[in-house]
Amino acid sequence: MSYKDQIDTSRLPQHIAIIMDGNGRWAKKQGKNRVFGHTEGVKSVRRITEACAKLGVPYLTLYAFSTENWGRPPAEVTALMELLVHSLRKEIKSLNDQNIRLNTIGDMNALPPKCVRELNDGMNLTQNNQRLTLSLALSYSSRWEITNAVKQIAEEVKQGKIEPAQINEQLISGYLSTHNLPDPELLIRTSGEQRISNYLLWQIAYTELYFTEKYWPEFNEEELYRAIVEYQNRDRRFGKL
Ligand code: FPP
């Protein structure tokens, strides 16, 4: 029986976040270069986005490029940025036809202007779509995001717009780049690594974590369904009994 048949569609995670890891190792295993792994990784992005939309998962957030990834060799960084521009150009019409809204989280100012233009065009085109919000985390890290939020809140306090006593969890959430997204209910990391790598640290306080040995280019619909079935079999207590 497929894992899909075991999913209770009335209890789907409303937000799935994914750390797409293992493109480089997957490519090496095939005797290919790392960029080939990223190119194959884009196919997984398409598969998993479409599968989430079809299932009825309303939010999907993908860790596509971390703040730390700027430290990779320049040729790989350039290749990833080119791949992003190329993929957006190729896929945006199909995303729009599927009623998918494109969103980004992260430091957009740090990206090459060509990427920013393509992302903005994509976000404008799809802004009214309702079925699934696909957020790409680009030049994103949680510590960057929280630092940024603290700076903004401090500025508002300085200007007398916020009283320190008003600062609560809800207010802080409103200053994060995820302010328009619910917290993830399921976080998936591929490639066998079991760490969070500066991803959505504030937002995953009660998120179920799922780690799989599969490399990202191997992660397909069935692997997604399997993760959702495991999520649904967990007992979520949110600190209560
Ligand atoms: C991790 O594999 C993957 C990345 C750093 C980038 C993810 C990017 C894509 C899937 C393609 C571009 C994305 C979009 C949305 C068009 P790794 O390089 O860290 O692999 P390794 O750990 O095996 O070296």
Summarize this entry quickly:
The protein is an alpha/beta fold.
Return the CATH class.
Answer: Alpha Beta
Assess the beta-strand content as a share of residues.
Answer: 5-15%
Characterize the main sheet: 6 strands, parallel
* Count of individual beta strands: 6
Number of helices: 7
- SSE class: alpha/beta
What is the architecture at the second tier of CATH?
Answer: 3-Layer(aba) Sandwich
CATH topological fold name? Undecaprenyl pyrophosphate synthetase
User: What would the average pLDDT be, to the nearest integer?
Assistant: 97
Order of helices and strands: EHHEHEHEHHEEH
Rough shape? globular
Name the CATH homologous superfamily: Decaprenyl diphosphate synthase-like
Termini separation comes to 33 Å
Rg calc = 18 Å
The stretches of 5 or more residues where confidence is low (pLDDT under 50) are none
- Number of individual domains: 1
Helix content: 40-55%
Named once each, the bound ligands are: farnesyl diphosphate
Order of strands in the sheet with most strands: 3-4-2-1-5-6
